[in-house]
Amino acid sequence: MVTSDQGSLTSPTELRCITCGYDLRSLPIEQSCPECGTPIELSLRGDLLSRSDPAWVARLARGQSLLVLGVRFCLICMVCAFVIPFLGVVGGLVFAFGFGIGINIPSWVFDVAFWSFGGALFIGVVVTSLGCALVTTQDPRDSLRESSTSNRNVARKALFAMYACIPASGVVWLLPFVRTSHQIYGGIFLLSVGTCFAVVLVASLGWLAVLAARIPDHDLRSRTMKSARFFRWAVPVLILTALIPPMLSATPPAAGGALIRPGVLSSVTGCVFLVVAAGILIGSFRMYKDLRTYHTAFHRCATEANTANSEPPLTD
Ligand SMILES: [Zn+2]
Q1: Which pTM was predicted?
Q2: How far is the CA of 61 from the centre of ligand 1 (A)?
Q3: pLDDT digits (tens, 9 = 90+) for 59-109
Q4: What is the 3-state secondary structure (H, E, C) of the chain?
Q5: For residue 286, how far is its CA from the centre of ligand 1 (angstroms)?
Q6: Which residue among 56, 143, 214, 305 sits deepest, i.e. has the most Cβ atoms within 10 Å of its Cβ?
Q7: Ligand 1 mean position, distance from CA 41 (Å)
Q8: How far is the CA of 35 from the centre of ligand 1 (A)?
C-alpha cells in the first residue's frame, strides 16, 4: 500500500479485481473498480475463498454438491459391479452343491441387470460432469490472466472432448475399415473416452488442490495431489489392460507362432486389470472422502464470502 497526496493507493505490483479481474495497481483504495464498480477494498483482502467473489464461491459450493452426489452414485455402481457377479457365482455354487439343484436364470434377467446398471452409471457420470463443470468455472479475478493450459482449463476442455466422443464415435462407425471389427471400434471408443476421462480426473484434482490452498487446508491439498498422482498412472493402466484382450482376439494369429501365447497374455492382463481396478476403487473411496471435505469447506467459504462482502469497506 502506498500513501500519496490523494490518500492511500493500492500496491504498484499486480492486484486483480475479485469481480472482473481488472488490474487495480496504483489506484486509490477508497475508489471502486473502474471496470465493474466493485469497491477496491474488497480486492485487497487476499485470495482466500472466503474473501473472493461470493457468486463464484457459491457456484463452487453448488458444483461440489453435485460432484459429491454423482461420485457417490458412481461408487455404488462400481461396488455393485464387483459384488453382484461374485454373489451370483457363490449363490449358484451353493444351490448346485448344497441342494443338488442347478438354477436356470432366464437371459432377460441379465439384460435387465446390464441396462439398469448401465443407466445408473450413466446418470452418475452425467451428475458428476455437471458438478465438475461448475467447480471448474473461472475465478473472475483470473479472467484476464489465466493460462490456457491451467489445470482448470485443461479439465474443462477434456470434459467437453469426452462428451464429443459420443457423436464422433457415430462418424467413425461410418468408416468401412472400422465396421469390419467390433473389437477395434470398441477399442478406439474406449481409448478416446478413457483418455479424456483420465485427463478430466487428474486436471480437476490439480485444480481442487489449488482451491484447497485458498480454503486454506494444506493437508487436504497434499492428499488431493497424492490422489492425482495415483490416478495419473492407474487409469491409463486400467484402460490398456482392458484393451489388450479384445485386440488380441481381433488380430489373426501370426503364421510362425507369437512370442507370447495370446492366452497367457490375456490372463496376465486380466489379472493386472483386476488388481488395478480394485486399487482404483479404494483410491476412489479415499477421493470421495476428500470431496466431502471440499463440499463442507466450499459451503462455509460461500457463507463467509457473502458476509465479508456485505460488510462496509474499511476506510482510513
Ligand atoms: Zn472489477
Answers
A1: 0.86
A2: 22
A3: 999 999 999 999 999 999 888 877 877 777 787 788 778 777 766 777 777
A4: CEEECCEEECCCCCCECCCCCCECCCCECCCECCCCCCEHHHHHCCCCHHHCCHHHHHHHHHHHHHHHHHHHHHHHHHHHHHHHHHHHHHHHHHHHHHCCCCCCCCHHHHHHHHHHHHHHHHHHHHHHHHHHHHHCCCCHHHCCCCCCCCHHHHHHHHHHHHHHHHHHHHHHHCCHHHHCCHHHHHHHHHHHHHHHHHHHHHHHHHHHHHHHHCCCCHHHHHHHHHHHHHHHHHHHHHHHHHHHHHHHHHCCCCCCCCCCCHHHHHHHHHHHHHHHHHHHHHHHHHHHHHHHHHHHHHHHHHHHHHHHHHCCCCCC
A5: 39
A6: 305
A7: 11
A8: 5
